[in-house]
Design goal:
6 helices, binds zinc ion, 2 domains, two-stranded antiparallel sheet, Dna Ligase, domain 1, Arc Repressor Mutant, subunit A, alpha+beta, globular, single chain, disordered N terminus, about 40% helix, about 160 residues, three-stranded mixed sheet
């Protein structure tokens, strides 16, 4: 798994603990989503996976270790529902979608060499205003707001 250390660590602000099943059921209910066992498992896993941004395929593989009967279609459908409800982040990258645990507005630093994705919660009012203005101009109902910066992470820069 990608290293998440480095100079951005002090700018991130995660409560790194996974949500409890009770918290998960509450949040799903608030968004009008049924709390099926599979959905609780998918959301619970993502809420505890730190800064990783995994593909649906990777999530399916990881979840099957504890839920061997979980189908790929179920994982995909639940990821779509959770992302649509604004509970998780769906990050659309040229090589495919990845899912992250932070639904609040944030900046993704995507390394083009190693594929590492780091969340940076800037908490910057100028950024919040920019996102709000973009949504207003586009008359867009935003569920998850993130900005993506592509480039090379510190490790890759250091080793080249
Ligand atoms: Zn890198
Ligand atoms: Zn992210």
């Amino acid at each position: 798994m990608p290293a998440t250390s480095g100079q951005t660590t002090d700018m991130t602000n995660h409560a790194s603990d996974a949500l409890t099943p009770t918290e998960i059921v509450t949040r799903l209910g608030e968004r009008g989503l049924a709390a099926s066992a599979q959905r609780v498992a998918v959301y619970g896993f993502i809420s505890g996976m730190g800064e990783q941004h995994l593909t649906a395929e990777e999530l399916h593989r990881a979840l099957r270790e504890s839920l061997p009967t979980l189908s790929r279609a179920t994982v995909y459908n639940n990821l779509a529902a959770l992302a649509d409800a604004g509970l998780i982040e769906k990050l659309d990258l040229p090589e495919g979608a990845r899912f992250g645990r932070v639904p609040e507005p944030h900046v993704n630093l995507v390394c083009r060499e190693c594929g590492d994705v780091t969340d940076v919660l800037v908490g910057d009012e100028a950024v919040q205003r920019l996102l709000a203005r973009a949504a207003r101009v586009g008359q867009f109902d935003v569920s998850v707001a993130s900005i993506t910066l592509s480039g090379r992470c510190r490790d890759c820069v250091t080793h080249n």
